[in-house]
Amino acid sequence: MNQHVSHWIDGAPASATSGRLSAVFNPATGRRIGDVGLASTSDVAAAVDSATAAARVWRQASLSRRSGVLFAFRQLLHDHADELAAIVTEEHGKVLDDARGEIARGLENVEFASGAPQHLKGEFSEQASTGVDVYSIRQPLGVVAGITPFNFPVMVPLWMAANAIACGNAFILKPSEKDPSAALQLAELWKLAGLPDGVFTVIQGDKEAVDALIDHPDVAAISFVGSTPVAKDIYERGTAAGKRVQALGGAKNHMLVLPDADVDHAADAAVSAAYGAAGERCMSVSVVVAVGPVGDQLVDAIASRLPNLVIGDGSTEGTDMGPLISEAHRDKVATYISEGEDDGARVIVDGRKAHVPEEGFFLGTTLLDHVRPDMSVYSDEIFGPVLAVVRVDSYADGVALINENPFGNGAVIFTRDGGAARQFQFDVEAGMVGINVPIPVPVAFYSFGGWKSSLFGDAHMYGPEGIAFYTRGKVVTARWPDPAESMIDLGFPRTR
Predict the structure, then answer these.
(1) pTM
(2) Which of 179, 173, 159 is nearest to 203 (CA)?
(3) pLDDT of residue 485
(4) Which residues are catalytic?
(5) CA angle, 175 as apex, 171 and 180 as ends, to 5°?
(6) 402 and 350, same structural domain?
(7) What stretch of H or E contains 172?
(8) What is the distance between the alpha carbons of residues 395 and 19, in angstroms, rounded to a whole number?
(9) Does the CA dihedral 202-204-207-209 come out positive or negative?
């Protein structure tokens, strides 16, 4: 029986008024398992009204109370991790262990935000001038919104919501309509943790909901993770409307392998980073840049590992890789493989010919060698289980190739040479760098974000930059003079 997925407004489920529905599928079976109601502009307005009222109250909550709610929420997430992981696997398709990992990384962000009393401390200067003290404070923005992608329906919302709520804001989540149910589970856990109604809201929807959030004057900030064209559009429209915007776009993450690298280690890392979650990660390695003679060994090592991967339903223990999110996306990824082959890339392992379950949106792992930068399999973000190998003659050629790419999300190097690794972190134009680490997602007390077309806006997500994004600074200059000292002085204030 199909389930109906609703909004969450003012602390309770709420039906969409638009009458529009979007189908929700289990990608492992290809079967429709539910429908999600898509928000109208009036639904968004109702959600913002509720959040606005809640924000006025929540910003007055003590830091200790906010921290207490976050600690309670963190424990509830831990206790319900398996339940959440099952929801993610059913609607997204990633394997259960990967879904549990997503939740664990989200928990790290909640743990960081639980330290709100420390993060929100200001500065104080006594006697900045005679009898004058100066101090700084950080205050919440009010109502903020997060627009999140299908590939991390728990982790990415927690990147945003944990800090936003800890800082005293009300947060509206617009999850992907492809896997919307995890957002409602989060809403229920926030409520159980003691968060007041209206501080966390879920609006299910598509572009109409996104446009309504951008256009609403009471939404002060928008956080987004998704494709580069949409990120750019949201950034331009949001900032034109006077909002703060952090919009994370696409990626084409490169893995530079030097001739001195441990080939087995590099091959294991490349397989893990390229094919985990069927390549549907913004930090997946999608291009291996092989320097000089290491290319042949590395390609053989990667190819030898792929037949051992178990592809199937992610809810079955022992499965390594699940399906893609939709039939349309699977077919699009397969088209990229065909284009690469037509353009002259050598197909070492062909996912189109793999033995995969007949039902569901499955595609096997693909390895392409001798890929050139002018091919679509190199230039486009494929977002699937396709790994391209580009061969270069030198370290300098490899870094130039990476830096010329319009994306700058992540870049990694595999080498035993500490000098080369240090030079790479200095040279490479990417926001997140790995040294013998294939997926360099920062821990929660740093911040996540790329460069170039992978990020629009000045602030990275979560960590210290997340705290800064969801607050604004205020500096107070205070004096408590004796009435007898009062005088008129038309000169510009000076420190004395």
Answers:
(1) 0.96
(2) 173
(3) 75
(4) 282
(5) 125
(6) yes
(7) strand 170-174
(8) 57
(9) negative
